[in-house]
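Make up an example, fold above all:
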Amino acid sequence: MTGLQILRNDGATVTSVEELVEAHGPTTGLALPGDYGRCAIQLWDTIATPVNLATVAPASTGLDKDAHVFAAVLDRLNRIAAVRYRIEHEGELLMEATPFDQHFISPLTCSTDPEPLHPWAQIAMPRTPPGCTIDSPLAAGRVTYAAPRIVSSLVSGETVHDDVIRLLRSCGLLGSEAGPKAWTRDELAVHRHSRWGLDRPVGGTYAGRDRGLRESAVERKPHTITETIPLEVPSPDESTRTFVDVVEQRRSIRTFASTPIPFGVLSRFLYYSLRFPDDSSTTVPAPPLAPRVVPGGGCLHEIRCYLWIDAVDGLEPGLYFYDGHEHALLHLNAPPYGVRSMQQAARRASATTTPPPIVISLTGDIERVAYKYESMAYPLMLKHVGVIVQQFYLVATALGLGPCALGAGPGHLFPDVTGIDPMAEPVLGEFMLGIPAEHASPSPAV
């Protein structure tokens, strides 16, 4: 084989960009001979939008006459993730990689100087071995297949084929420099995978159906209910503060009075924070969706509210679940040490010395979100928690309560006490609520 060759879907060899442009649909392969060795470049047949090669390079320029034009075309195809690279040796597949970022460098121009894998590179064994994947949140491309002996050589520092070095360097997977100081590898990986990318679908693809996930019902009730306690419904004329006043007066309060929270005040707090409004007064999406007084992506409202109550008038200390449809508290059968343990955790997280009358745990039904949203279910739930926390702050301020969000909480306490699987319903946030120490009682305003 001599010169640069490009293959169309029908297997025909073309020698100019013009012939590529005239081809119907994406081409199936580019073969690179010569000193580049056995690295083949193959065009995807399954890209979401067919590549318009007429916008990539002048159609009248022949690739057989100007290799620089080919390099320019290849660079543009890299930027739209329209190609993938494969390295074979004597019929054995050594490595395959896919570009997905505009910073991907063509392997044709990469050096073969040996360098170790980057400290942030991650090697994983897929569900269908043999072979491994190599990825990094800093990378511009992903190795979708690496032969086990190649991975072994990379890890042990042994010499590998020059084509392997070129391809890893083009993906940005080599180097010894540290990652960005403000990020950890895991945090950057979560961020990158929650944004649109050329390497994967992101958004409402309903990919969960293919993974066997269920479209769960809104606000599933816990299984350990011992009592249902209806909450009070506030009167429409109880509001006395303006919205601007509430926004300006919002503060995080970490010191609480020993006075219990009145039952009616807690009722109003939950009513205006997380209630599902009466279906008869709203435009309701088709089940299993339902509107809430706070916004939520896809109207899924997967966030669930548990209250560790120590001091509320008329309520026994214990763990409660808020039923936003019935506007009721469900008393759960939980060990008595749970409330004290959560209070201690909240005190450590907020550096306060006074135990909060209420600690709220916000969890998320991840299967409900992952059923619809691909590659972004967990980050989306964190955003929903942020929306709810702001709602908590505003409503609590209007009621004269002391609100305080917690930056972190114990990972084991909630599943240990409730028996709920943390992989199905992880804890996403905690929130303290009480009467500010400087106030004798909360304001009735809303």
In short: The chain has a mean pLDDT of 79. The chain has two domains: 5-193, 204-434. DSSP finds eleven helices and 18 strands in the chain.
